[in-house]
Fold these 4 entries.
Entry 1:
Amino acid sequence: AAGVPVCCLHKRLKFDPFALGRLKRLLDTWLPDILHTWLFAANSYGRLVAGGRARPRVIVSERCVDVWKAGWQRWLDRRLIERAHRLVANSASVARFYRDLGVPEPRIRVIPNAVEVPGDGGLSLAVPQRERLLAELGFPRNAKVVGYIGRIARQKRVDDLIWAAELLRRIDDRAWFLMAGDGPEHDKMQRFAKQVGVAERIRFLGHRDDVPQLLRLIDVFWQASDFEGLSNSVMEAMAAARPVVVSDIPPNRELVTDGETGRIVPVGDRLGFAKAAARLLADSNEANRLGQAAQRRMKAEFSVSRMIEAYVDVYREQKAELTGQPVAPRSG
């Protein structure tokens, strides 16, 4: 619809020389001014093929504090540092991780993820809609819904949320729980919920296309991750004016100020998560205050237009360095 040509490299193998060759032929044909790649495989292929050329300018993007990377992957990242002109990180925490890996500070730019605030401000569901969705989930009409939306993977520490759910339901019997998303630990966490004895209170929904609707149902959103880049799910919850309870990791602190735009709990503190959520379920005024403040922050600091402007500035800067001309002033 936008008239942008799309070519698939059909990468099949962990290291695929055929895809590498296809990328080289595309660059030889298109002769772009800028090559912008995203995440480990694309960043590696782009730097291997184009990093030694005067043109294009190579921009790599990193989206997470990648403590998961194996030794050979970190070795390759270090080897390819000089073959990229800029590294764009989506948070100060990601920038710090790659600076510590050896990327020179002047080459790093931080452009946070962005989120759109709902046009109606993320109003909660009307009573008939809420009751209908609660019934579909098998929740009682008076249920208070605590939710997690995201990948069900080890780094997300979903087991901490399941333990916290068991504790929270004993504090507040109105508490019911949903987990929307899929991932490598989905089935394992379902079994774990049964072992803990809270399975009847939790709905594992898998992939959903109605996340905005679920966010309007949720009374408290929580996330317990070990590490992140800049959590889109937390940002979406904040944009929808949901009060959030998140783990105390640097990327989450870039989004949430404890007591101002949400609540922060130490990583692994299951009782802390339960208590923080219980306080918000018990005090709707406090929950609303935090949710509204969170939404204002998303609108002011993490808008899509602000993100686009930042990327345009990086592209214009690289174009100017390629041509040897000063950066032209913005039009309009």
Entry 2:
Amino acid sequence: MLAVSALVEGRDRVEVAALFKVSVKAVDNWWAKWQAGGRDALLSRPRGRRVGEYQVLSEAEQAAVRQAVLDHIPSDLGLSGQLWTRGQIGELIFKLYGVRFTEPGVGKYLKRWGLTFQRPDKRAVEQDAEAVRVWHEETWPAIRARAKAENGEVLFADQVGIRSDQVTGRTWGAKGATPIVRRTGNRFSVNAMSAISTRGRMHFMVFTESFDATVMCRFLARLVGHFDRKIHLIVDRHSAHRSKTVRAWLAGHQDQIELHFLPSYSPELNPDELVNADLKRSLPHTHRARNQAELAAETRRFFHRRQRQPHIVRGYFGGPHVRYVLNENPLSF
């Protein structure tokens, strides 16, 4: 534009070419474009193909493959495995349309479709989708309404086991050489039960025996001792939770606590599962327990630390599958 402006002002084309360090021919081309189309003709245009031009698969074929990847696992469509890779998607394209793609070629389509390589969530095949729907739309709203009417406290609870030989998380190491974490060769474990509320409250119990109805009753007794109002405790359908021993204990404490059960095979609906995951991620960074007593002590330290961090406890309810708990009046309980 500056070169054309100089020509418009009457400067010589050779002088303009020297001033802008281009050839006279380039100056002539700019002038010709200016005369033919004005300023718009001089604006640069992107070079190369337009996005999507000359694609091997049509838009409809691309949409069909994308939907197949989102709705199915490979074994559903006659391929091997449960997780999609670029190679598997290439095989699907060949099976459907007889076209071979390299893995980088498949990757370009995946990027265009807005798909990314992710670690999938797990769901039990036994999970009842209708029961999950009823929980979301009927059961949970009814529990929340009752707790509010009774000025009660809603807590989600779960139990977890921690082993001495458990290694989670990642660390840095030389490429091609897996890092080694040195631990005691002795194997031991502890168990814990915790309960959390949207207020940021956390209650827990660490124990070394197996989890059973007796342990559950002990946890319930400790829990009711912390409250002067009724507790609505939401748990999974573990056999200990539904045992005769626990039912008998609850019958004697009806005014203090009531149990509600999540749908079967639906751990993702329980925010306390995120406490368990946090515990298992945190311990490997801090513990060098050499015996069961030390592992129990470190587990207690984790829970005591989280009790002093109510913002983290409230954050457990922000997970994508448990956010439903906060849908209405998030801090009302």
Entry 3:
Amino acid sequence: MMISKNARRFAGACLMTCASFALTGTAFAQTTIKMAMSSVADLENDNGMTAWIMQNYVNSHSDNLKFEVYGSSALGGDQDVLQAMQLGAGATMHVGGTAVYNSIVPVGGVLDLPFLWQDFDHVGRALDGELGAKLEARFEESGFKVLGWGYSWGYRNVVTNGKAIEKPEDIKGLKIRTIQSPVYVAALNAMGANATPMAFGEIYTALQTGVLDGFEHAASMVYSSKLYEVSDHVALTRHLFGPTVLTYSLTLWNQLSEEDQKVLTDAAKFAIEVNRAMAPVRERKALQQLEDVGMTITNVDTTQFKKDAVPLQDELAADLDATDLLKLIRDAQ
């Protein structure tokens, strides 16, 4: 069968066009970054704000990277997400409190000792120095690239449903949800509570059904997650301050080009700067927001708690093989 010259030209043009599309597709293939967190993906909490800043920075500074945010445990609970990241699967990144890594990087539990941090600046001085460098190395040994240390938007306080806490002994025996971390459990039990480890996503229902008497968290998380709908009172115990950490799956990090790594490093640096600058303001704002929706805010004398915490810090740090790290934290006061 004879093929006309025009037909051959048309076929050739089609092949060239297809090749062009194929090359274009290859040249602009994007790496999708999935940022996971258990908190709500909004701007009312520290993790949500950090993720939003990173997403906008990366997507506006790179044609190679596509940054997506998955809040409210959309990719699974923290432990499931972190274990998958170690394998280079599931989520690419995670942002959250350092305590959720305690079962994987136990020495990091030193950051979550009770009544340890004096103020926000104390956290920054410690983590921006030798302490942070040593912990970053330990995180890498477990499969995580640390891109930055952030601030929780406020200290953690005890939040209850029904019974207000006005004095230290009011905490005794209450079933208070805390993070699934031995350090957090020990801290709450030392205060007299019946610490109840539980995934963040289960708190709302547990309070509704009476399984819990309360929980402990920063005011910004209480507000952004609408936990004020199932609780009444905030006792300003300020017993824990869990720093936050931005991590990337080390397996996936090593697959990135230097150019893409720089974009992500710059994005993380900017996000952490904003996160830290906003922390004191956001803590005050969140407490006011909780008061505005009807929650009562009470001050509690924690003098004895703080005295009792010092030997507990020493004991827990020794158990974690982190006595040297505890000294770095105390020296940074």
Entry 4:
Amino acid sequence: MKKRMTAAVLLAVLTAFGAAGCKQNVGTPEDNAVVEQPEEGGENEKTLSGKVFGFSCADLSNPFYETLEQSVRTALEEQGGRLVVKDPDGSTETQISQISQMIEEGISALFLCPVDETGITPALEALKEADVPVVNVDREVSDTGLITAFVGSDNYNAGHVCGEDLTAQRPEGGRIVIVENPDISSYNERITGFEEAIADGGFEVAGRIEAGGGQNITGSLTQMVSAEPEPDAVMCASDQMAEQVLEVLEELDSDDILVYSVDGSPVTKSALADPGSPMEGVGAQSPINMGKTAVKTAAAVLDGGDYEEETYVETFFINRENVEMYGTDGWQ
């Protein structure tokens, strides 16, 4: 039965915060440090035996989606399910075609992160016609009436915690550059959270750089950083954007500019662990817990049980002070 409610899933890492000195909930699902307690009724029962699930995300070359897929696969296999994975490689047309193939193959449900939130609609209509439940993950589709449930991150908070830290680091305000991709709603939520956190802090947006579709931002960022006065900070909508920013700042020897982003990838956390890096903090999300939650949701849907139509996995701030606890060798 559907439950119309929004729930923030509290990460196990936060409930176990008192375990000082231990890395929390990092790496792949196989090396995840958090041991979850079995639920009543027996967590290890093969409740999904014989069922085949589809997995289609925007681009599996993105480490976030690779980890998300591993998490979903592990959780399904623990319950006897099987996962069929298709990689559209950033093409909406390919994603629609691959979903059609999976429908013909008889999948029981689909885990979907769309390449394009609106362009995926024809595939959603086909899935609904075939009576295949859709658990939409990470990027929410435009037509939510065609999905069964959504599991994502609290993206607004991920951006907001970055803005809160910036106001603490620069209490007198300053000039900032924002690197974004307006075509992705989750990225917009992150930037909105960041901007609202710094709204009364005396900050001026010196420039905005669009970085959609793998666009190289080197030229635009170099020009903005070289201008006088130099920006005080750069806020990035994703870690992949932040990686480009860090490369530019290293080339320009601009180590006084604070860099923030959202994701929590091993690359970004490694930069945080480097005392000489301008990386200042990241609003971290957890593809591991997102995958586990998506599988629990799909299992409840197929079993006719209660499930939440919208679930937002909690996000949190990682900086130099706590990065060692989370580790740099994997995702949380």
